[in-house]
Each structure stands twice: as structure tokens, then as C-alpha cells.
Design a protein that fits this description.
The protein is of the alpha/beta class. It has ten helices and eight strands. Helices cover 40% and strands 17% of the residues. The longest helix has 30 residues.
């Protein structure tokens, strides 16, 4: 498992495979704040590689196997880390894929240009506007983690984030009898969740000059706001929109084949 050393005590755990096809791309996957690079390998990674494409996945500082010494995380710092990884790996023909707030990081990286420049963007349940509702949700997530850790957060939010089929299949793994355990102030997972509160969603969508694929799970009952998605989509010049009726927020987990099919079909235009 390769790692990129950013400074003493600060590393990024990553995996990189180069494209094998003549027209192969490298799909660069940006996690959600509570994500993990294993999500991509367990869902769409094999399909993308079998089609001749490469894959670059990594964990943010504070996620599994990516240690840190800094006191807080931020949107800018996460994108800075991504740029350092791109300079190290130099992915061939990158296309950035972002899940949830990971899509915000993906957009910021490509709009910086240079090594962050991508040939296209895939946004998975990303499009949203700042406002009192999003602010409330972000603070509630942090409060849950401070009170009962990731266990409490999963128990409360999973039925709102995931589709009905997933809920039926996984219900027995939640709401157990054991006590909840709060996360400490220096826990990487909690620090990442806190960083989402200060994220800047005022993206210059009109300046996005690469093709964009935007996927929305219609059973996402936390972040999906149809009016906001319509308004933001209208500001992106080269946009392909796909609504996934039988998915919620975690499309890579809930409908990996639907996601892989959509990406492979759309990427042929690149």
C-alpha cells in the first residue's frame, strides 16, 4: 500500500493503477468526509479497470491509514493534499469523481488548473446550496459524532440516506443493544466532519469548462433539494444529468452497476 508523505507524521494512503486501454482515462475518486477508498474498489473500480481505465483512490488525512498531526482540517487543505498527490502520481488523462462533498473538492481541484486539471467531472449527489437547512444538518452530524460516535450517526442517518432495499437488507446490523461511544476532539473522523461546516459552496459553476456528469439518488432524504439541483445544473454548460430512482445518497454502494454503466457510457464522449 503506497503512501505519500506530506510532512513528518502526515501521510496519504493511496492506490494507483494506470490505464491499459488505448483511450484509457484515470478516474480519480474523491471520498466523502466519512468515506474510505475501499468503497471505490468494492463498487466500481473493477468495472472501470476492466474497461481499460486507470484508478487513483486515496484517503484524506484522518481517514484509514492516513495519519495526521495538524489541529484541524479544511476544504482548502484537503484540496491542497490532492494537488500534492497529483504531482506525485501524475495520473494520465484524469477524470475526477466526487461523492457528496467530495464532488466539491473535485470541482475545486480542476478549477485550480495545473496538476489538478481534469478532462471531466463526475458529481455524485454533490449539487447543493448553502443555507440554514444544510448548516443544521452539518452541525447535527457533528453533534451525533460527539455524543455517540459513528454508531449513533449511522443509526440516525442511514434510513434517510440509503434506499429502501438497502434498509431492508441491512436493518439487523443497526440499532444494537450496545452503548454508543463518542468520538474525542482529536479523532480524525470527527475533525473531518467538522470541516464540512465551513465548506464554501459558492462555486463558480459557469466557469466549469469540462464535461460534467451529475448523478442524483432520488431516495436521498438528507441532501437532495430538487429546486437547488435544477438551479445549479442550469449553470453548468456541458452537463449530463442522471436521476437514479432506486438509490439514495450512497449510489456507489447502493447501485454500483448503474453508476459504472453511466460513467463508462458518458466517458466515451471524452
Amino acid at each position: 500500500m503506497p503512501t505519500l508523505s506530506l510532512s513528518e507524521g502526515n501521510e496519504l494512503s493511496y492506490d494507483h493503477t494506470e490505464p491499459t486501454g488505448a483511450n484509457g482515462l484515470t478516474f480519480v475518486c474523491f471520498n466523502a468526509l466519512s468515506g474510505d477508498k475501499a468503497m471505490w474498489t468494492d463498487s466500481i473500480g473493477t468495472r472501470l479497470r476492466d474497461a481499460g481505465h486507470g484508478l487513483l483512490i486515496w484517503n484524506f488525512r484522518g481517514q484509514a491509514d492516513s495519519p495526521f498531526t495538524i489541529d484541524e482540517f479544511s476544504e482548502e487543505q484537503i484540496v491542497d493534499d490532492a494537488m500534492a498527490l497529483f504531482r506525485e502520481v501524475q495520473p494520465k488523462r484524469p477524470v475526477h469523481i466526487g461523492l457528496s462533498i467530495g464532488g466539491l473538492f473535485a470541482m475545486n481541484a480542476t478549477q485550480r488548473g495545473g496538476e489538478g486539471r481534469a478532462e471531466g467531472l463526475v458529481l455524485i449527489n454533490t449539487l447543493r446550496k448553502a443555507g440554514p437547512r444544510l448548516d443544521w444538518v452539518n452541525h447535527a452530524v457533528v453533534r451525533c459524532a460527539e455524543t455517540g460516535g459513528m454508531g449513533l450517526m449511522r443509526d440516525l442517518f442511514s434510513p434517510l440516506l440509503m434506499n429502501a432495499e438497502w434498509q431492508r437488507a441491512n436493518r439487523e446490523n443497526f440499532l444494537g443493544d450496545g452503548p454508543y461511544e463518542p468520538l474525542g476532539s482529536g479523532d480524525g473522523a470527527l475533525m473531518l466532519l467538522k470541516s464540512g461546516i465551513g465548506a464554501d459552496w459558492s462555486v463558480d459553476y459557469e466557469a466549469i469548462d469540462v464535461p460534467v456528469l451529475s448523478l442524483t439518488g432520488l431516495q436521498d432524504r438528507v441532501f437532495r433539494d430538487p429546486d437547488d439541483i435544477d438551479a445549479l445544473s442550469a449553470r453548468i454548460a456541458n452537463l449530463t444529468r442522471i436521476d437514479v430512482p432506486d438509490a439514495g445518497h450512497m449510489i456507489p454502494v447502493e447501485r454500483p452497476d448503474v453508476l459504472a454503466d453511466a460513467i463508462l457510457t458518458w466517458s466515451q464522449k471524452l
